[in-house]
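Design review, sub-item: ligand-bound model
Attendees: FS, YL, KQ
YL presented the inputs for the benzoyl coenzyme A complex:
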Amino acid sequence: MTENTAHTDSQLAAFEDKVANEQRIEPKDWMPDAFRKTVLRQMSQHAHSEVIGMQPEGNWITRAPTLHRKVILLAKIQDEGGHGLYLYSAAETLGTTREEMVQALHDGKAKYASIFNYPALTWADIGMIGWLVDGAAIVNQVSLQRTSYGPYSRAMIRICKEESFHQRQGYAATMVLARGSTAQKAMAQDALNRWWWPALMMFGPHDSDSAHSGQSMRWKLKRESNDVLRQRFVDQAVPQAEFIGLQIPDPNLKWNEERGSYDFGAIDWDEFMQVIAGNGPCNRQRLAHHIRAQQEGQWVRDAMHAYELKRQARAVA
Ligand code: BYC
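KQ shared the predicted structure:
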């Protein structure tokens, strides 16, 4: 990683001017080390989330209820893999290689979204992942389209287009269950009961407890706070649940006329802290699977590397 602790006042002023004037910081621009480190942390975590997020859904490809659903699910999971690759490439512009980012994940130094440490137990969970998890991700990512780091901002614009299809297919699959037999409706409700609170946790700790938010907002890396985005998601999801006759599992959920928003109950932050510390229901399984897949794919990367070396040698000869 480039060290640039020694900088001139004009370099810092140029950086701050760009941020203040809504211009994007580009890879070759000078940037403070702390900015580089924070963008890399967030982007690499985001990339890891896209890739690890393929696991709970991948678990259902062979058991999708119809060919139609299977095709949709396959396409969606492939999109998520593509988002991961795209984000790794964008993050590499900060001077850290994808191999280094993946190693940090395997060493437990880099995180990925807490939500993917919960199991997908029934087909209804696939609907919930699309409706709620992608739904929450879009709320966050639409906001990040205006993030101050150019490659991240452009990645978000492209990724959001696909995420909205993901959310729609999840909601559509959930709607079918909610309007189906008594057993199907019960399965959808059970899945909603299990995914609702973890989906709210995706936005991170409350603003008052968020370690990075203040600085990230000043750099315009984050454009809206964790709590603002979480509230937007709740306000969108509640009428969607009502429309299909499902019950949000929160006795304290209530429309607040004055705020023009829903009030909602307390999030279990102890559970969140346990999950991000590596002790969620599936943390070990998710990481072990990723490490195994990485090892099993090594021969492919070796072969591609050897082919590239040969191609270059031929070009020189
Ligand atoms: N999970 O100061 P804070 C998808 C950590 S995938 C885990 O608020 P920040 C999809 C945080 O990292 C899309 N850790 O942090 C794929 C920090 O710890 P460190 C995923 C979390 O960065 C497949 C500490 O808590 N989206 O769509 O300012 C299938 C303090 O937090 C979480 C993204 O990755 C969490 N939920 O704000 C379906 C969005 N929350 O790093 C769908 C990009 C907090 O100091 N990321 N932490 O050890 C972001 O927008 C921000 O990083 C966050 C957190 C809002 C998540």
